Amino acid sequence: MALPQAVFFGVDLVKFGIDFVNFYALYFAISLTLNLEAGYTGIPNFGKVLYVAGGAAVAGSLSGRLAAYVYGINTHGDYVTFNAQIITQVNNLIASDPVFATELVLLSLLIAALIGAAFGYLSSYPAIRLREDYLGMLLLAVAQFFQIFLRGFVPLVGGTQTIQVPDPYVYFASLGIGFRDLVAAAVISVFAITVYFFAEKVAKSPLGRTMRAVRDNEDASRALGKDDASIRRKVLVVASAMAGMAGALVTFYYGSVGADTWTRFAWTFWPWLIVIIGGAANNAGIALGALFFTALFKGLAQIQVLLPPSVLSDPNYIVDIAFAALIVIVLLVRPEGILRERPTLTLPRRKLVMIARSSSTQLPPAEGDSSTREGGGKLGRLKSLLGRILKRRGSADSAR
Amino acid sequence: MVVPYFNSAVVYASLFAFMAIGLTLTYLTTKVPNFAYGSFVTIGLYTSYTMWKINGIAPYYASAVAFLLAGLSSAIMYLVVLRPLARRGSSLVSLMIATFGVDFGFVGIFGIYTDYLRNRYNLNDTKQFFQLQADFNLGEVPGIVYVAPAALTLIALLLYLLLTRTKFGVAMRASVENPSLAKVLGINVERVYVVSWILAGGFAGMAGAFYTLWLPGGTSTGSDLIVEIFASSILGGLTSIFGAILGGLVIGGSEIVVGTNLTTGFGAIGAAALGVLLLLVSVYLWRLKKGRARIVGVAGIVLGAYVFLEAASGLSLDPLVSGLVGGFGVEAIAYQKAVPLLIMVAALIVMPKGLVSINWRKLLRRERKK
Predict the structure, then answer these.
(1) One pLDDT digit (tens) per residue for chain A, 400 residues
(2) Strand partners, B186
(3) Shared domain check, A304 and A368
């Protein structure tokens, strides 16, 4: 049995589609976490690769050891050297043990989330204290050091030579070509959708509005009694935990993990590119931005396959230059991205319209202004103030 | 020579001082940390590589060409990317992400260039090459050990003269301090900025050319060096050129000294001295009388005393102390970049304005009064 093929100009559309979804969902999820930090809270996280790679490396390394331990496979005391043999045995056993495969994935996700959260907590220490430029430099340097560390520290992921990871999807590989990737795509998509709804929920919650207030005017939010340090810390911990989980899913999809996967271009710059293209502080914009980026990236890769191989140079480098040019052009021409940031409504739009109708004589003073809510109290007043600040900012933007 | 790694420390320190000057210059003028800065070093690397492999020209001569090429790239980057963005009123983060993007573009250009070199001249080491065997020897010592610090001294002297003795230098300082006031006085601020960017890229290129004489290089060398370059610049305060020189010297020197000793071992006396050092720093932290500093201080005192006692008694019971005494082996060389990173973090916590911001005399007086 195999997946149906739909060949179009020499490209198998089904295979291409599965590959596309995998890539899209991964980058969508990671960009959403970056958007929570950079877009909503204003933490310029130039070390995103650190959290993804941290989750991926630890989950990738531990899952194999754990599986070997559970199945009682002889590691000869040197997991890295005998890695290929061990993983082959593990995969053979996992193929007939779906319960353990699921447990392994869930446990690895948990470990990756913990590692990501720990890294996020540690980096919240400078993030609270430093200015944007210093923080950016520090996080970039730390992430770069982490990659150098991964390259040097053999026991974790084998240094420069990559190690293999148990394949929890191995059962589906036996069903036919393409099924494994299809299931992987489904898993990653479920993860990405969960992250999306979580991010939307946060953005529309009072916490989300406070995050924006901290970003836009730290002093004012502090004067209103908001603890900006704790909000930054929370956002970094949660976003980094999710980035770590995304990293673990990447390793299970690739089936291997090594140091050289984790370049700052692929895992810091591309998510930033997506956030900038899609529109910072707009989760729907991120979805569009990731789609645009994936279409461009995968489309260019397909065109390369169709073109005759160039003797002169690897066409990938031209893609790199094109992306560099793209981000500069987007920043110059449309810095707010595809979808600009909008003031959030404190209640669903339908409810606001209902309130407006029931108060018969006049419409609510402003869209997204919660002063119409009955008995708002202290919280209500704060919300209305924030609403007004956001609204004013929005109108100032459109005036420009 | 005094110690075997002395040469290495001298070269490293001088090169990082060069790179830190450049990064500080760009930060001074545009107030943007240039994430693409490592790529200018790579430009220097490949200028030197190409000229040596193809034309047989030694990297010392190539360094002049590298200066021009990297300076030109730097100026183009400023004029094409950063200036239009700044005029558009982009935020600091947007400018930072733009420099990040430019770095990505540079890596693409290096990829194409190295592919071209490989195919055109049948060179198989274009992506990753060894130290170039192009240096002369003076006695037992390679020439770069003299040339790098000499060039640094010369450049520092010239920069000092430029900034204090020439009209253009005064204009430069004025434009950095207060651009609008400088404009009112008729200074062409834009020209000043362009010149600073040319100088900044040039120093990186020059350092890259020298670098090939001492260490292996490749397309990602510049990107990896960003840890040390940022650390040097931040240690120097990010706003002082002479602070940057100091920062580069400290970072480059300490990375080699500490890194080498971690692999070969500090010896019993060295390890004991480290314990004492840790003890002293911890006592200082403990005396700060702040909750968290006190906890860290107590932990440090215990650890410091333990390391000292164990190293001094020559027992070496656990891997930490025996590693410090006898070395952690060759693998430890991979982690020597932890040294600049730790210094950078410490600098950001203790003295965010850098080494030059500290009033040493006042600090000493205050300590004496206690």
Answers:
(1) 566 777 777 677 888 899 999 999 999 999 999 999 999 999 999 999 999 999 999 998 899 889 888 888 877 778 888 888 888 888 888 888 888 989 999 999 999 999 999 999 999 988 888 888 889 989 998 998 898 888 888 888 877 788 888 888 888 877 877 888 899 999 999 999 999 999 999 998 889 989 999 999 888 999 999 998 999 999 999 999 999 999 999 999 988 888 888 888 899 999 999 999 999 889 999 999 999 999 999 988 888 777 776 656 677 888 889 999 999 999 999 988 888 888 777 777 777 778 777 765 554 555 444 444 444 455 666 666 666 666 655 555 554 4
(2) none
(3) no
Q: Which of residues 77-116 of B touch A (CB under 8 A)?
A: 81, 84-85, 88, 90, 92-94, 96-98, 100-109, 111-112, 115-116
Taking only residues 132 to 191 of chain A, the set having a beta carbon closer than 8 angstroms to any beta carbon of chain B reads 132-134, 136-138, 140-142, 144-145, 148-149, 151-154
Q: Which residues of B187-216 are buried (b: 16+ CB within 10 A; e: fewer)?
A: bebeebbbbbbbbbbbbbbbbbbbbbbbbe
Q: Phi/psi of residue B128, each to 5°? A: -155, 110
Chosen domain end from A259, A286, A310: A310
Domain boundaries, chain B: 6-263, 266-326
* Cα→Cα distances B74→A97, B67, B270, Å: 58, 10, 44
Same domain, A103 and A166: yes
Enter the tokens of residue A201. 């929920």
A11 and A302 Cβ atoms separated by less than 8 Å? yes
Q: How many CB atoms lie within 10 A of CB B84?
A: 14
Quote the number of domains for chain A: 2
Architecture of domain B6-263: Orthogonal Bundle (1.10)
The complex's ipTM works out to 0.87
Is the Cβ pair B335, A44 closer than 8 Å? no
Q: How far is CA A348 from CA A204, A345, A381, A387, in A?
A: 10, 7, 18, 14
How many angstroms away from the CA of A280 is the closest CA of chain B? 11
B308, with CB counted inside 10 A (0-12, 13-18, 19+), is buried
The reply to whether A367 and A241 lie within a common domain is: no
**Residue of A140, A318, A327 lying closest to B35 (CB–CB):** A140
Nearest CA in chain A to B345: A138
> Which residue, B147, B122, B126, is CA-closest to B64?
B147
Domain of residue A392, residue span? 349-399
User: Nearest residue on chain B to A268, judged by CA atoms?
Assistant: B100
